[in-house]
From TrEMBL:
Residues 236-362 form the CobE/GbiG C-terminal domain. This is Precorrin-3B C17-methyltransferase. Gene3D superfamilies: 3.40.50.11220, Cobalt-precorrin-4 Transmethylase, Domain 1 (3.40.1010.10), CobE/GbiG C-terminal domain (3.30.420.180), Methyltransferase, Cobalt-precorrin-4 Transmethylase, Domain 2 (3.30.950.10). One of its GO terms (biological process) is cobalamin biosynthetic process. Pathway: Cofactor biosynthesis; adenosylcobalamin biosynthesis. Transmembrane segments: none annotated. Residues 142-233 form the Cobalamin biosynthesis central region domain. NCBIfam families: cobJ_cbiH. The keyword DNA damage does not apply. The keyword Transferase applies.
Length: 623
């Protein structure tokens, strides 16, 4: 099963005809979906049988699945699901595949239910055309109702339908972003409809709606003809001090009271902070569990270092720090050396029989995503998309952020979604690329790092893992998955026949990261050992002598007529293939887009093909 489909699980698929089974059965195995068949149809491995009508069966499994795939007429599906639909934020993704498997249609819950994304992935997998009818997709804009999902933002109140429809009509919509990541703004198309900030009086721009991205709770009228929506990045850390035995209810009421008083959004809470003495405070633990909030605790030694507006000598005497609520809020909001500010100083709420709570709120510069980051190290193959594995394609499409060299990002552009953040870095900045990927994954994002060919062969996989290890990685968080790809030596070999049929090796002539003496030793050993040898990075503008040296070493051990393939830009538009021999090879263009394959002593040429016999014993048969 392709693991990158896991975020869509559980998926149910329904087939009622033999053609539908033929399409859905293999698909379900690949994506890990359950295939349901009516009891009249033959039983198949890995399928579930249902009794009675499909309508009844659907209502039984409706709420247990995040996505449904039908291979049925669109009209029939519409009638079947109509009574079960509720609203955008609850309905599962509904996808239809036609009986010939030519089209995959995103029918319902395109954004929040991720039907558009799943449609695109399945279409790639079965080589069909994805049909996505949502307006933002066609405008190449991120869906406004899923904008903050990668960053863990909470969707707040507002007229979401009206704002989406304004955007679809190309009307100007104002964006006022007070907190949270602005990465989403970096990849908007040129003609996007957003106006950032407040227009100047002299400007004749007239926005027709507004998107707030803030920690403030705003109340909007549903009927306003200036529709507004709000996203709440989770930037508020609530510091809490309380007397032993304070009830969960008092804690909850107090937080709500303070948030209301200061017009703050409960949805913007990143987590709760306190002194480590309170790590077992029952009311506090119950509150965090109920709200699914992280509880961060700090020792008095750490807390007493923090400068706070309202220190207390009495508290200091009791617990060893003059501040619990204010200091712990500031400590929790402090992230990777970026300071945090207190936005609500200490508030004390007493109840006669439920205890006493002290609350302070600090705002952190970076939002808490509440997600476990993922690093996908992806090999995209030599160039054309049909040489990329389905698993690698899915990984790229799934990621929140795609990082890679711009040429490769262009090649994979058909797999991209409008919501994705693309970070192209120059070819020389591999280490920066690796560090950036790690930083974003640690923060909770799903990051795909793209290499050409295989990512573990002179690619980014090693660099990223090395940097992770240096940063004290525990091997599990962020989660890492490596997606292999067809490497240049395989791609080049396939274009000239079967030169790699016997023992072979790869040598990169780039001495940027490897001392030239080491490379020299390996060239000598490969030549002496009669390995078929694939040369990566053979010649650059400034590094021209290494390939000459290589040829000379090989000439010491091999016949000058030994076949050599020069394959430039395999599987790309400007592909060029030359089959020549060891003696002649330097008469042709060899550059950084070329892979050189030098045959072994039994490799022979037949027209423009290069063949290395499977065994040395067959040599006599050839001759
Ligand atoms: N990770 C890549 C290799 C990167 S090193 C892989 O597994 O293929 C870069 C070198 O790979 C280039 O200098 C060239 O020698 C070779 N290369 C990469 N893509 C190629 C292609 N499409 N055709 C021929 N050679 C290629």
């Amino acid at each position: 099963m392709i693991t990158s489909f896991v975020p869509f699980h559980p998926i149910a698929a329904i087939a009622t005809t033999p053609q539908a089974i033929e399409i859905l059965h293999p698909l379900c195995q690949q994506i890990g979906a359950t295939l349901y068949l009516q009891n009249t149809v033959n039983t198949l491995e890995n399928t579930q049988i249902y009794q009675g009508s499909l309508k009844d069966h659907l209502s039984t499994i409706w709420s247990q699945n995040k996505a449904f795939i039908f291979c049925l007429a669109t009209g029939a599906v519409v009638r079947l699901i109509a009574p079960l639909l509720r609203d955008k934020s609850h309905d599962p993704a509904i996808i239809i595949i036609d009986q010939k498997g030519e089209f995959v249609i995103s029918l319902c819950s395109g954004h929040q239910g991720k039907a558009d994304q799943l449609t695109q992935l399945i279409a790639h997998l079965i080589n069909a055309k994805p049909i996505i009818t949502g307006a933002s997709n066609s405008l190449n804009l991120p869906g406004i109702d899923v904008l903050g999902v990668p960053f863990g933002w909470c969707k707040g109140q507002g007229n979401w339908t009206q704002i989406s429809s304004l955007i679809a009509q190309g009307k100007t919509v104002q964006v006022i972003q007070e907190v949270g990541s602005t990465l989403w703004q970096n990849n908007l198309p040129n003609n996007h409809p957003f106006y950032f900030g407040f227009p100047d009086i002299n400007e004749c721009i007239k926005p027709e709606g507004r998107i707030w991205i803030s920690a403030t709770q705003r109340r909007f009228s549903e009927k306003s003809n200036y529709p507004k929506v709000q996203w709440h990045p989770r930037v508020l850390w609530v510091g809490i001090g309380c007397v032993r035995g304070t009830s969960k209810n008092l804690i909850e009421r107090s937080i709500h009271q303070v948030f209301k008083q200061y017009h703050l959004a409960i949805d913007a809470i990143a987590g709760i902070a306190t002194i480590d003495l309170k790590a077992d405070e029952i009311g506090l633990i119950e509150y965090c569990q109920k709200q699914q909030l992280t509880l961060k605790t700090f020792s008095p030694n750490v807390l007493k270092m923090v400068e706070v507006p309202n220190p207390s000598a009495i508290v200091e005497e009791e617990v060893g720090t003059p501040s619990v609520a204010e200091a712990s809020a500031i400590c929790a909001a402090f992230s990777s050396e970026i300071s945090a500010s207190l936005i609500v100083s200490k508030q004390i709420i007493k109840s006669e029989n439920e205890g006493t709570v002290t609350i302070a709120i600090a705002q952190s510069k970076v939002e808490y995503t509440n997600r476990i980051g993922q690093l996908y190290l992806v090999g995209m193959g030599p160039g054309s998309l049909d040489q990329m594995t389905p698993a690698a394609k899915t990984a790229v499409n799934q990621a929140d952020v795609i990082i890679g060299y711009s040429l490769y990002l262009d090649l994979i552009s058909p797999l991209k979604r409008p919501e994705q953040i693309i970070e192209a870095l120059p070819i020389t900045q591999e280490k920066q690329r690796a560090l950036r990927a790690i930083e974003l994954a640690k923060w909770g994002l799903t990051v795909a790092v793209i290499s050409s060919g295989d990512c573990g062969i002179y690619g980014m996989a090693g660099l990223v893992l090395e940097e992770l290890q240096k940063a004290g990685w525990d091997g599990t968080i962020p989660q890492v998955e490596v997606f292999p790809g067809i490497t240049a030596l395989q791609a080049a070999a396939s274009r000239v026949g079967a030169p790699l049929m016997h023992d072979f090796c790869a040598i990169s002539l780039s001495d940027l990261l490897t001392p030239w003496e080491v490379i020299q030793k390996r060239i000598e050993a490969a030549a002496m050992g009669d390995f078929v040898t694939a040369i990566y990075n053979p010649r650059s503008h400034t590094r021209t002598e290494q390939i000459v040296y290589t040829q000379q070493v090989f000439l010491k051990y091999r016949d000058p007529q030994t076949p050599v393939a020069l394959v430039r830009s395999a599987y790309r538009k400007d592909e060029k293939i030359t089959v020549t021999c060891l003696q002649e090879m330097l008469r042709f263009t060899i550059d950084m887009l070329t892979t050189v394959i030098i045959g072994n002593s039994s490799t022979y040429r037949h027209n423009n093909w290069m063949i290395t016999p499977r065994g040395y014993n067959q040599q006599s048969e050839k001759e």
